[in-house]
Every structure is written in structure tokens, then in C-alpha cells.
Amino acid sequence: MQTTAWLGVPTAHTAAPHSLAHLPVRLQRARSTKAFASRQSATRTTSSHLSLGSRQCLCDHHVGSLSYCNKHTLRRQHVDRNTTPKAASDATDGHSQEEEEATRLASQVGSSLAAANAAVAKDAADESIANPRDVSAKEVSPTGKRWKRRWTIIGLCFIAFMLCNMDRVNMSIAILPMAKQYGWDTATIGIVQSSFFWGYLLTQVAGGVWADKFGGKRVLSFGVIWWSMATALTPLAASLGLPVLLVMRACMGVGEGVAMPAMNNLLSRWVPVGERSRSLALVYSGMYSGSILGLALSPHMVATLQWPSVFYVFGFIGIFWFLAWERNASSSPAVDDKISKEEKEYITSQTITQREGTKVPWKQILSKRPVWALILSHFCHNWGTFILLTWMPTYYNQVLGLDLMKSGFYSVLPWITMAIAANVGGWVADAMVARGVTVTRVRKIMQSIGFLGPAFFLTQLSKVTTVRGAVLCMMACQGLDACSQSGLYSNHQDIAPRYSGVLLGMSNTAGVLAGVLGTAATGMILKTGTWDDVWRVAIVLYLVGTVIWNLFSTGEQILD
Fold it and tell me: 149, 255, 346, 545: which is deepest, by most CB within 10 A?
């Protein structure tokens, strides 16, 4: 009698869904010894239970595919034609019993394999977490944990802004021994102090135009090396006469005037929108750190090394920064030769593409309401800010009766508060954006805090009679004011990223004018009025700025 052949119906098949072939590569690599032994045991069980002579499913050599074969009925391919009907019937009954037995055993083995594969998957997942190096390159995010080129740019900008304010505030300390040496009266001292702003005003808009045309790296390089050289040459200029000194201070202002527009241009190209608030806050906190260091170090340097030392030391630090900047910075990721491909793709997908030499569309810029909202709000903001920063020591001296040394010490504390609050506010703003809050809403919330917070605490100053209370109010004013770094100071890149340098130059010009006018107006008010009158003007402007900002500002791009 001929041997009966049994074949599985499907001639082409795929592995079962729970087959290891369908697991990710990282899970296959991560198989533990225990899971692998379980799988081998299940394979041996399959081989022994399904070796049914010549009547064997052709699919059973694929480990883990038995659940697939169980879905199909094994059928007899042909029967010996010489077999009698009765014999055929008996054979069929016997084979049916074998089919049922094979199906039952295959089902049991399939369940065992499913459990084994589940163990493999679990162990592999645990091992991949414990050993992240096993993750394939395709799964590595472009924002991984290795050091990023954009962090280098942000860090160098932070140091540049720190030097900016160190070189600015050192004159407020050195002016006292200088006036004694050269016989200057208070009016001359005022002229020397204000000469810095002559040059500073000239290059606010120009710095933005240059940055958008030639790239932020070149313009910031020029600014830092220019004001550093002017700082280092200040003692020589003073020895040559007052006019030469005034020109040198104005030259220093020219250099510092381009710093902020150039930095804004750089970060608009290097920093994705989701990291923008905290990056700007960090860079601007460099200014606060510079004021703290300058005010803390200058008195000791003047006492031990004479007043020219503050200009020499601070100036030469800028030259060292220039050398590091030229070696490590680029105007944008597109022209940087040290950035990784992944980071470049990540940044360029979320920022604008730099087009140097683009003509500035002045008419279009000036026709936008959000632009004017930004300019006017900057004016309202800086009026109160400059009053607090420039007149604070005088307030402590005249109202609270502190001597000049203590007044200077307490004047440093608000800068510390601003440095901390600016960075906290930046992280909060970026977290809000990451959670789906619109950029417009985030900018309005943060700037409203920057307006209403100082306004509230200024109203409390007239009620405070202790030094501690007054200092705490000043610290709160400046700390909440620093939220503006995530408000209007970040808005230039939002609404006109390609022309952010120009736009910041325009708004900062208004801000500097507010500082100059506010400082002068305060002196005039105090001749016939009180400090409460000074605070009322600042409060009114804070409230006006709040209304303008919330009605007309936006976080959406309005200029290409």
C-alpha cells in the first residue's frame, strides 16, 4: 500500500505576528539569556511533538509560526486509488484523530511560544533602557544630550553681554577718583556719564541693518573689539583732555550699540522657537551679571591698583573674548563647519534661512501695528527700568539715609534678582510653548507680568518706612521686570525673524530715549516734587504699556 502524503494547505506564508522576526532590531539585540533559553526549549517541544512521520506540516520549521498554521485545516492531498472504501474510511478516521492530536499539541506549543516571546520583549525593553548605547542610530534624536553648537553661541553671547555691562558700570565707580584728580565739578561729571549714550543711540538701528546684511558674527565681533579698545584707551584719553575723553566714551557707546541687535540676529538663526525664551533670558542675564561683577570688583581694583586698572583689565578681557569668538562662532548653522548634520537639520527646520544682503523693507515694517506696539511698549518699559537702575542709590541715600557705600551695596541686589528671574521666566515661557500655549499668549502673559509687577511694587514704596522693606520692593520690581526678556525682548524674532536685528534696533532706540528722558525728568521732578511723583509717572507708563501690548502685539510672524 502506498504511503499517504500530508501537506499543509498554504504554500506561501509569513511569520506570525508574535514572531521574533517582527521585533525591532534593538529588542533582538537585547535578548536576555533567560528568554533565549525559554525560546530554545519551546523550539525543541515543537520539533518533538510535530514529527508525525511523513504527515508533517511544512511550516513547522519556522519557529514561532505555529499559531499561523493552526488557523488552517490539514487535508489529505491524495489517497491510494487501490485502497478499498472500508480501508479508506478507517484510514480517514485514523488520520482525523491524528489531525486533532496535532492541532491540540500545536495550540499548546503556540501558547508557550507566545509567552516566551513576551518574555523576550520585556527583557529586551528593560535591557535597552539600561543600555542606551544599544539604540540604533535612526532612533537617536537630533536634540540628544551631547554638546550642541548652538550652546556654544549662546554661551559666548552671554559672556559678551557680561563684558558689555562691566565696561559700562566701571565708569560709575572710577568717576569719583577721576573727578578728584582732574578737578571736575558735578556738571562735568554728568556730561562724561552721558557721553556714552551719544554713540549708543547712533548705532541701534544701524547695528540691526549691518547684522541682517553682513551676519551677526561680524557685527558682534566689531562691537566687542571696538568697545574693548575704547575702554582700554580711556585712561590715555582722560590724560589728553576732556574733549578726547568724551569722544572716546562716545566711541565706546558706538560699539555697545550694535551688540544687542547683532545678538538678536544671531539667536533668531541659531535658536529654535521652543528654546528661544530661555536662551534670550540667559544672554540678557549676562548684562545683569556684568553689572554685579563690575560694581563688586571695581571698588577693590581702584583701592589697590588705582582707577586706570579697571579700564585696562576689563578692556583686555574683551580682546580675549574676540579671539575665542572668531574661532568658534558663525553667523548661522548654514555656514558653520563644526555643527553636526542632525543639529543643522533640526535648527533649520524651526528657524529662518539666512539671506545676507537682503534689502530692508522699511515701509512694510513701519506699516505694521505690532511693530509700533513693540516700539511704544519698549519706551514705556525702559522709562521705569532706567529710573530704578540709575536713581536707586540716590533714593537709598536721600530717603532711607544710607551712606554711599551701603547704597551701592543695596543697588547690586536688584541685579541679582533680575539675573535669576530672567532665567526662570525664560524656562517657564518655553515650557508653556511646549505644552501648546500659543506664542502670542505667552508673550502677552510674560510682558504683562513685566509691566504690572513693577507697577504694583512701586505703589508700595510710599508706604514703606524701613530699609528692608524698601530693598525688598526694589528687588521685586526688578525681578518681575525681568519677565520682559520673555515678552517684548523675545518678540522681535517672533514677528520678523529675518529683520529681528533691525527691529530690535528700532525699539531699543525708543528704549534708550526713554532712559535718557526719564533720568533727566526725574531730576527736574525732584527739584519741586517728591519721590512719589517720580513713581507715579513710571506707574502710568507701565499701565499704558500694558494696554498697548495686549491690544496690538502678536507672537505670529508678520514679515517674511
Answer: 545
